[in-house]
Structures are given as C-alpha cells and as structure tokens.
Amino acid sequence: MMDSVSVIVIGAGPSGISLAHTLKHKLGFNDFTFYDKLDGPGGTWRQNTYPGVGCDVPTLLYSFSFNQNPNWSKELCEGPEILECEFDSILPLKYKPTEIIGLDMEDTVDKFDLRKHMQFGVECTSASWNSQGFWEINLVDTKTQVKYTRTPLYSYLQSVVSLSLGRSNLLEWRNLVVRFFHTARWNHHFDYSGKRLAVIGNGCSAAQVVPAISQKAGYVKQYARSAQWYHERPNRPFTSFEKWCLGNIPLWERYLRLRLFLTSDSLVATYLPGPAAEKVRAKAESGARQYIYQTAPKEYHKFLVPDFPLGCKRRIFDPNYLESLHRSNVELAPVGIDHIDETGITGTDGVRTEFDAIMLATGFDVQKFIVPMEVYGKDGKALSQQWLESRGAQAYMGVYVHNFPNFGLLFGPNTFPAHNSVLFASEVQVEYLARTLLAPIIDHRISSLEVKSTSENQWVNALQTELKGSVFEAGCSNWYINPHGRNSASWPGYASTYWKETLKPQVGVFNRVYRSKFWIGNTVWRWIRTTKKESYFMLLLSLAGFMWHRKSVSAHQLPFIYRKIVS
Ligand SMILES: Cc1cc2nc3c(=O)[nH]c(=O)nc-3n(C[C@H](O)[C@H](O)[C@H](O)COP(=O)(O)OP(=O)(O)OC[C@H]3O[C@@H](n4cnc5c(N)ncnc54)[C@H](O)[C@@H]3O)c2cc1C
Asked: Which cofactor does it need (predicted)?
C-alpha cells in the first residue's frame, strides 16, 4: 500500500538541508520527509562538537549559496557558529549572543520552513526496491526502538561515512578504566581540566583538538605515526564595517565568494600529474616546509616534514597546532601504538604512559558510504555487495547507481573536491538530481529513472584513469585509497569542472520509464508557481523597456542603430 509520502530523504546534514530547500522552494514540492538519527539538523556539525572543531575552507565559501550570511564572526568559523548549536553550557567554545547572529544550519532550516518536513531521532536500518517498483524504507525510532516501514513513490538516500576507529582494536574494551572516545563522539560530561590526556592520530581533527585541549589539560601526549604538510592559516575576525558591506552592498558577498572559490580551485593544480604540476607543488612544499621550521619546536622538525608529496594526505591549514607543540604540557610521540591496557598506552617504542582519558582523532572511514544501513536494489542485491564486486564504491556523477532506480546519493563516491567547499559540490549534486530525477518525476514525465550499468562503468573508468598519476596515489597511507587500491573519494580535477560536467546533456545514460504525455502542462504550471516575484518584475521591466524602445525608435532608424551596435 502506498501512503501519502512521496519522497524520503535519509539525513538532514548540510547536503540534506540543501536538497530540502530545492524540493520546497525551487521545485515547489511539499510531499517529502527527511529522517535523521540525530536530534536535529546539521549532520557533521551536530556530531563533531570536540574542542576546536572548525571549518578549514573559508566560511563565506563553506555556506549555503541560497542563504548568504553577512554576520560570520571571522574568516574560518568554528563548529558551533556553523551549526548555531544550543550546547553553550557544555561546549568549551562559547559565543556571546551577539556573535551568533548569522547562524547557518539551524537558521536555514527555520528560515525556509524546512523543519516541519524533518523527523529526528529516526534511523534508517535498510531500504529495498520491491517487486511493485517502489522503495520500502525500514526505520527505527532511536528512543522507543519502535520499527516501521515507509514506502515513498521514490526515494532519495544521502551518503554517510562512518567513524574510523582504526587502532582502537588494540585495546581490551571491557577492562578499560580510562575514559575513551572518538572526537566525533566527544564526551562533554568529562572535565579534562588538569587531566592526563592521550590523542591518537594527527589528521585535521587532531590538529584542531590538541591546541584547544592543551589550554586546560594537565598533560597531552599525541601519538602520530606519520607526518603531515602544514600551512599557515590566517583567521582574521571580520570588522563591523566588513559585515556591514557584506549585508548592505548588493552582490558584494557573492563577489567575495566567487573570488574565494576561484582561488581555492586554482590550488588543484598542485595535485595533478605532470611536470607543470610538480613545479607548482615544489613551490607549495617549500612554503609549507618553511612554515613548519619557523613554527614548530626544533626537536620535532625531522618527524614533522613529510617525505611524500604535498596533497597525498589532506593538507592541514594549521589552527595553531604547531605553535601548541611548544607548550610544556604537550608531547608529540612520533610512534604507533603497541597496545592499550586498563589505564594507559604502550607505544611501539616500548614506552608506557598512564592517562585519564584517550581521545581517538582517527578520522572517518571515508570509503564506506551509507553504512551501517543496507540498501537492496532491483535484483535484490545489496549495494555493499555490488560495490565489493566493483572494487569500491562507485556512482555515475557520484549520484546514480545501476540496479537502484529512483535512488540518488549526495556527497557520494568521487565527489570530494580537493580544496574546495563540500557544500558547493553538494549543491551542484542537488541541482543535478533536481533536473534529472526529481523535476521529471514531480511533473509526471517519468515514473522511474535508472543509470545504465555501461554508462556508470565508462564514466567511473574514465575518472579512475584521470586519477592515475595524481598526487593522491603517491604511495602515502591516506583515506582516499580503498583496500582494493582504488580512489573512491576524490574528484580528480577542479570543482568547477564537476559543475560543468553536470550541465552536459546526458544522452543515452539513463533507462527511463515514461509516464504522462501531458507532463509539459505540469512543468509550465510548476514554473509559474515557483518563479519568484522579483523575476516576474524583472521580466515586466524588460518588456516595458523593449516596448518603450520600439516606440521611441522610428522604423527608418532601426538599420542605423543596428549598424551602430554591431560596429
Ligand atoms: C570535523 C569536520 C570538519 C569538516 N570541515 C570541512 C570544511 O571545512 N570544508 C568542507 O568542505 N568540508 C568539511 N567537512 C566535510 C563535511 O562532512 C561536509 O562538508 C558535510 O558535512 C557533508 O554534509 P552531508 O550532509 O553530505 O553529510 P553529513 O554532514 O555527514 O550528514 C549526514 C546525516 O545523515 C544522518 N544519517 C546517517 N545515516 C543515517 C541513517 N541510517 N538513518 C538516519 N540518518 C542517518 C546523519 O545523522 C547526519 O545527520 C568536515 C567534516 C568534519 C567531520
């Protein structure tokens, strides 16, 4: 039996919010429901509340294009400001009310009336395409554990990555006396002031958490197995005048955003194969090396400077991490972990250290999309099995997977832009989905859409060929490359190229089941309903201008004016 829900989306993170905005305001469609296992919107920014959490892409760029915010406090904002969360009492990063004027995730959801479409505390456990050609979505209420099923006309599932617990298997969980948590599950009930803390890992999260916690902790020992490239990260607060300009000068924020976008995108040149890229990379490496030598304590220089090319691991724009290594209560141990016992850690150097708490800054299992839920396609095959057979996650344009009709992914395989904002990539995917799947279904033009397996494979193979020789494959251990040796995470080139790719006509790529001959009427009606008043005003203004121009220019003048324009 079909119920009234027509679109189901799993996940109300930034990508989901962007999709909700498009469904409601660009497509004029209201028959959709979002389910998220968290207690509110924001995804990553709701889950990652560790001290120091923040954005490493300028926030003017890492923000929704449809809800520009002139009140960002600084160039690179911290997590609470991005989320506008209500954890003030437990988060170490407190903002005065005046500083949280702009807001982002929460504000966007309310401003565009999206909250009523969202149900929180509901987890999707599995989904399957049934024999009648509909999705069946199995859900569980995370509080009551009540299980139920929803059958939308078509489904949309958002990609999700899982935590990487990496080296945590080296411990005996049951006997643990020390506190132990991942940075993405920060225990705010634990007061770490004056305590002895271990941080395992040295990626982006560790670089943020070490300088933040070492301000209050008694002792912080960081276990790091390999080096990273660090760059300076100036982070200037915006002045009141700058905020005024952002809010009051038309298109000023758009202009700055575009400038930031182009600058970020140009950094991709350092990652590409070939001698030209190597030259650019050598220059960037020299700058980073200098920065490390100038900022970090001398005793760590040898370990800190990598022997792999810049970009092979995600580069770190330093949030005062190297500076914090000078603190007397901070120790960087360039060793792995042999084992963890009840009260301490023994490193691979044989040194055992006692701790009050162990923090895993081991990142995320970026290769695992939409886990732990399982999705079953047309022939009953699980997506995880299909992806095992293809030697890693893959999707046409990072969005569509064969055997899975009326199903799309956001922030899916190979859509991670090297230096640019993930929100840009997500918004591009939302637009692409709206055009290829959602609008045609809403207009009753089609009842189903599925990418052809050959199109998917050809697209993915071409992309993998492009990735060959890129810096991601330079041999360091990184989260881009999966156990089969394939890179299922990175987009190989410029973020703008991905956008252009979505605009190309997609001829012969999809199998479509057509529905109504009269769809064009629905499309026109949708356009009429969703076109903004300002657009009608501009259209009327242009028409009036055209009429006035025709009236004021007599017929015999026209050829002369025409000649003047074209000359
Ligand atoms: C600490 C940190 C800092 C980052 N900084 C940047 C940055 O500076 N710039 C940048 O571009 N990117 C950054 N990123 C990447 C960031 O993840 C993306 O920018 C963004 O969050 C992607 O949004 P999303 O909505 O696709 O996924 P997410 O934010 O992960 O949201 C997914 C949502 O789906 C929900 N969900 C998952 N599974 C289920 C299920 N089975 N049932 C119900 N709900 C489910 C989750 O609860 C979550 O709310 C950062 C990531 C982290 C972890």
From this structure: FAD
Cβ atoms of 101 and 71 within 8 Å: the answer is yes
Is 495 touching ligand 1 by the criterion CB < 6 Å? no
* Cβ-based neighbours of 397, under 8 Å, separated by 6 or more: 429, 432, 459, 501, 502
The string of pLDDT tens digits covering residues 65-77 is: 999 889 899 999 8
Distance of CA 317 to the CA centre of its chain: 17
Does ligand 1 lie within 6 Å of residue 160's CB atom? yes
- Is the Cβ atom of 383 under 6 angstroms away from ligand 1? no
Residue with tokens 């959709």: 32
Question: Average of pLDDT values for 418-442?
Answer: 92
CB 336 within 8 A of CB 198: no
Is the peptide bond preceding residue 51 cis, with omega within 30 degrees of 0? no
* Mean pLDDT, rounded, for 452-463: 96
Full-model pTM: 0.88
Q: Which atom of ligand 1 is nearest to the CA of 55?
A: 8
Does residue 462 have a pLDDT over 50? yes
Q: What is the mean pLDDT of residues 213-233?
A: 94
- 394 contacts 384 by C-beta, under 8 angstroms: no
Domain that holds residue 558: 533-566
pLDDT value, residue 312: 82
How far CA 13 is from CA of 37, 249, 292, in Å, comes to 11, 30, 35
**Cβ atoms 45, 15 nearer than 8 A:** no
Which residue, 336, 363, 390, sits at the end of a domain?
363
Which pLDDT band, with edges at 50, 70 and 90, does 22 fall under? Answer: very high
C-alpha 535/C-alpha 341 separation (Å) is 66
Q: How many domains does the chain have?
A: 3
Residue nearest (by alpha carbon) to ligand 1 atom 5: 55
**Residue minimizing CA distance to atom 27 of ligand 1:** 13
Residue whose CA is closest, atom 38 of ligand 1? 160
- Same-domain check for residues 409 and 545: no
Q: Are residues 97 and 40 in the same domain?
A: yes
